[in-house]
Structures are given as C-alpha cells and as structure tokens.
Amino acid sequence: MRLHLVRHGQTGSNLVHALDTAAPGAPLTAEGRRQARAVGEALAGEPLDTVYASHLDRARATAAEVARPHGLDVTVREGLREVLAGDLEMRTDPASVEQYLRTMIAWASGDLGARMPGGESGRATLDRFDAVVDEIVGTGADTVAAVSHGAVIRLWAITRARNLHAGAPVVQVLENTGVVTLESDGPGGWTVTRWMDETVPHVSPAPGDGPGGAPLPV
Prior knowledge:
Layout: E1 2-7, H1 12-16, H2 30-42, E2 50-53, H3 57-67, E3 74-76, H4 94-108, H5 122-138, E4 143-148, H6 150-160, E5 179-184, E6 190-195, E7 198-199
Parallel strand pairs: 1-4, 2-3, 2-4
Antiparallel strand pairs: 1-5, 5-6, 6-7
C-alpha cells in the first residue's frame, strides 16, 4: 500500500503561530484554498482509491480538493486530528510553543507516557492515529491520501517509519500541503519514500539529537 499523508492548507492560525488544535479550528485562508487546489492537482495523477481527512475544517476542505479529480467522497475520522494542545490551546507565546515542542520531542524520543498539559499522552495520540491507519489498510486499497496536520504527521512518521529518526534533517519541516509518502513493507511496517520534494533513503539515518528547536506546524 502507498499512503500519502497530506498537511492541510494555510490558516490564519498558522500565520500567527497559534496552537490551534480544537474543533472546528480555523478555516483555510485564500492562500490555503489555493494550496489545497494545487495539491489536489499534484495528486490528480495518483491512482487514489480513497481519501481520508481529520474532522477539523481545514483538513476537510483540503481533502475535498484532493478527492475532487478522482470523483471520490472524503472519509472523515477524528483520529487524524492534530496533537491536542490542551491547556496551551490558541496560545502564541514562546513559552507555550516551547512546552508543546518539548512534549513532542519527549514522545519522539520514546517517552510516550508524557502528557501534554491538559491534553493527551504520546501513547494515546499515536493509538488513535494508528487506529485510522489500520482501518485504511483494512480496506485493501492500494493508494490512499489522508489529510491531517503538521505535528501529528511528523510524530507518526518518525515513530512508525523504519527509515526515519527524530534527528533526520528531512523531518524538520512540513509545509502547508506538504506530502509525506509511505509504502507498507509488511504488517505494521512502513517506509517513507518521499518527504515533500525529497527522496528519503531506505536506510535508517544515524540517531541525532532530536528535532531541536524546529517549530512544529499545526
């Protein structure tokens, strides 16, 4: 199976770096709508069997553009939602963003019991995303696009792909409507083949120091 994980288009919250993770979330900006149409056109040549999206407005709107060229409906699943910011919701101050980032780094480094203040643990976050991926695999589809969110896509790919590590340079950036493409390589096993415009080697990178201070897009 080939799985394209697509980050949603730009929102107003992205422009001010707000930790916007609650439903329904900010809508796409005019630029975000343009980006959504562009990624839909970019994936028009892919033999998509189905398109999934989180229930947040920005993901559903982006997914509609991905599905349109294929004449597909969008399957909405809450499990694909962003990493919940909890008590940090809608904050933009550096201290809150840093706390969100530190928690994500802990998860990516293996401390899945750590909990976002007022939010989920890393284990709960991955479990609900895994459940949707398992559903997708169970459909028997060959090629699927799932529109989700920057932080949770990065977390899931880092922890589930055999050839990625939190310190890999490629994972530091995932722009709006950036696409991460994975191939299934056995039960529960995934390999990332492309991260936006970069081809990802099948060999796991050497462990680094983690994602450092790179911002986590939501």
